[in-house]
Amino acid sequence: MPILIDVHELAERLEAGLRTVVLDVRWSLAEPDGSAAYRDGHVPGAVYVDLDHELADHAVTGEGRHPLPSEAAFTTAMRRWGLRDGDAIVVMDDLGNQSSARAWWLLRHAGVDDVRMLDGGLAAWVSAGHPLETGDVVPEPGDAAAHFGSMPVIDIDAAADFATGGVLLDARAAPRYRGEVEPIDPRAGHIPGARSAPSGDNLDAGGRFLPAEVLRERFAELGITPGIAVAAYCGSGVTAAHEVAALAIAGIGAALYPGSWSQWSNDDSRPVATSASPSPVA
Fold first, then answer.
1. Is the pTM higher than 0.85?
2. Contact between 189 and 179 (Cβ < 8 Å)
3. Is 196 found in the same domain as 87?
4. Strand pairing partners for 4?
5. pLDDT of residue 73
6. pLDDT digits (tens, 9 = 90+) for 44-99
7. Which of 26, 126, 190, 273 makes an SS bond possible with 279, Cβ 3.0 to 4.6 Å?
8. Domain holding 21: CATH number?
9. Quick count: other Cβ atoms within 10 Å of Cβ 5?
10. 265 tagged catalytic
């Protein structure tokens, strides 16, 4: 299934009355609650998704800042969003899909086939002259159910060994990878052997994904060749989903390490590297 949808195709679907559920996943480290911005203006009919509470399970301890929700909890969220089996789903944000990719990944993991990211997000929608709606959208409850297992996942132990036989990508900004800054986690640096691949570099200046062939070149420069195993992590498993999506656009399958740096850096038994290039794996 396609991974992206452009604003014109989405507008045509909505105008034609084709069943399309739009999910607005506005979130950032600086402003994790995007509900006020959503109410100020969103794609008509879009339902707000609370990333912190619907795309993560904070009752889980020891697995990072955004542990994956359970199947039951995600099913509840899907039904609140009004999802039904067979729906076409579009996820979006105002951050180049760097937060909504978490919803894209979880929905794919849950077995949903037709879920796409709005390329360029809210900015592209507005720039194209399409209207916004204010207030909240409360849909009729849906009946969809999550069945996890459609996307590959690795845990902290697999992440520790991954770079010995594959490529482990760090989707955070390069200064965090190098250990020069760490705004939120207890230790600075990266998983030994990981390669720096900031998720923002998957986008052009307008917040759209780079063309597939350009993404393939980017990942080839990071050592990703046909047949090699690939996994991605970030701070807490959010922008790593964006990396997985960019790899998918390039035709490359990749696993997600959901615990990411927020789990790794809290485990004092795990080594930390601070070099500008991948350090050898112990």
1. yes
2. yes
3. no
4. 117
5. 98
6. 999 999 999 999 998 899 999 999 999 999 999 999 999 999 999 999 999 999 99
7. 273
8. 3.40.250.10
9. 20
10. no
